[in-house]
């Protein structure tokens, strides 16, 4: 008998001797009066054994048979050896039709040396909690994570997964695999996002050089923007920069989950290319993930906005722009290339004009001045310095010849008019 049962037996003996009543015994043992009566009857019949619970020594109704445990062990070691207990229990039910509690499986995996219990974390510093945003589309947390997502099956040690998660609902709004977190993949990510969902009210990102100018002396200048900040400004989408990884904890925790679950899902689906991986996450993984982990927003509604007529020119918005100066010979230099502006242009072009070099996502290059695209020719080599008499390039006016019956055609010299009058 345990110490608790011995104490209970002593109280019941006092009750039988009428030293205390049933109410007092119930208070001492923290039981109901009815339970005290039942225990008293069993003690009178069985003696001290009456305080022992009836299920002592019996096999539980929910106990898993040894045969089933052996089956689970074999499947786990063959198919899911590096899965976490919760994810492994889900896959056992989904793929093997074996239902087992995740905590039961956790204890079994610890026994099989397939899982190590995590120690409790000690909070090193205090961070204030930020409440979720109220509506869907009010704020998107965005970041990139380098990791061996395909475990080398595509020939790369690691890939970059770009992800956005809605702050109000926890929904994954978009996922995209890329080779790096440069401006081209980021622009391609957000262009696809905007085409599909519209413009979010704000985006919460870190201070990576793709998203913020970190040069000393320029970081606080509101006129100095990165390509990403400029594009989001054109879309009227607010950019919020996080001062620490913990500030955007929702996207950081998402990557921790994806590095466990998504890697295994890609492995089970036998995906080995970045193109197939992008199709898989969009069509299969994201809907399943959101159905399991998303929450209901505090307020109904969608704060994503549709594009205006000007904003629908996404080729221009999601392009890389750089400013260059027109040389005296009307050439422009960019990335060791020389561009010769043509003599006929849609607007007036002067020497020393500042033009924009626009690089689109598909690799095309445009030269723009006052929202007009200039005509140019790519030179094979650096042009020789020559003295140019031309001061400006302008749009050529088409020549016009008046018809025969036009008043201008009726003009004649004054001498001929005098002769006609004298006659």
Write the layout of secondary structure elements.
Layout (H helix, E strand, L loop, with lengths): L2 H14 L5 H8 L3 H14 L19 H14 L5 H11 L6 H10 L28 E8 L11 E8 L5 E7 L4 H15 L4 E4 L21 H8 L3 E4 L7 H20 L5 H20 L20 H4 L2 E6 L5 E4 L2 E5 L7 E2 L3 E6 L5 E5 L2 E2 L2 E4 L12 E2 L20 H9 L1
Helix pairs in contact: 1-2, 1-3, 2-3, 5-6
Structure description:
The chain has 423 residues and is of the alpha+beta class. It folds into four domains: 3-51; 66-111; 140-293, 2-Layer Sandwich (Nucleotidyltransferase, domain 5); 319-423, no CATH class. It has helices at 3-16, 22-29, 33-46, 66-79, 85-95, 102-111, 183-197, 227-234, 249-268, 274-293, 314-317, 414-422; strands at residues 140-147, 159-166, 172-178, 202-205, 238-241, 320-325, 331-334, 337-341, 349-350, 354-359, 365-369, 372-373, 376-379, 392-393. The strands form four sheets. A five-stranded mixed beta sheet has the order 3-2-1-4-5, with helices on both faces. A four-stranded antiparallel beta sheet has the order 6-10-11-12, with no helix packed on it. α1 runs antiparallel to α2 (22-29), α1 (3-16) crosses α3 (33-46) and α2 packs across α3 (33-46). It starts with a helix and ends with a helix. Residues 216-224 and 419-423 have low confidence and may be disordered.
